[in-house]
Design a protein that fits this description.
One of its GO terms (biological process) is protein folding. It contains two helices and four strands; from the N terminus they run H-E-E-H-E-E. It has about 140 residues and is of the alpha+beta class.
């Protein structure tokens, strides 16, 4: 798929901005997934603590893929413990991906000479003398 470029063969500012926004979106998705898995881990810990005090033959219900399934505590508890052991590994892998994504964003910023401004500074207040001629300015809110 060919990208449209300016007259000088370089990507347009709008394409650079879209690429940056895409990278930031991927970074946010990774952070959200990490947060979700950390909440799942805490829930697993609470449920395991609760079920350990219950007799193994007691009936319990578990949500599997949006469907409530009836099982016994003896069947569910080992599955929950295995999941609890795997969640930290998944969280660690996602944290590594998040770190790599941050490095990728930093490299993208350097490659395209992007100056990121936070919402506190109005981009129209930047004087032309202060900014280099080939600098892309990106204003991020929040």
């Amino acid at each position: 798929m060919a990208k449209s470029t300016g007259k000088s063969g370089k990507p347009k500012s709008s394409e650079i901005f879209a690429g940056f926004q895409n990278l930031r979106s991927e970074q946010r998705q990774l952070a959200n997934k990490i947060s979700e898995l950390e909440m799942d881990l805490n829930e697993h810990k609470i449920v395991i603590e609760t079920l350990q005090a219950v007799e193994p033959s007691r009936k319990c219900f578990r949500m599997v893929g949006g469907v409530v399934v009836e099982r016994t505590v003896a069947e569910v508890l080992p599955e929950l413990e295995v999941n609890k052991e795997r969640l930290p590994q998944a969280i660690q892998a996602l944290n590594e991906q998040l770190t790599r994504k941050g490095q990728e964003i930093n490299e993208y910023i350097e490659k395209h000479d992007i100056k990121v401004q936070r919402g506190s500074e109005n981009p129209t207040e930047v004087s032309q003398e202060d900014a280099p001629a080939k600098t892309n300015v990106l204003v991020a809110s929040g």
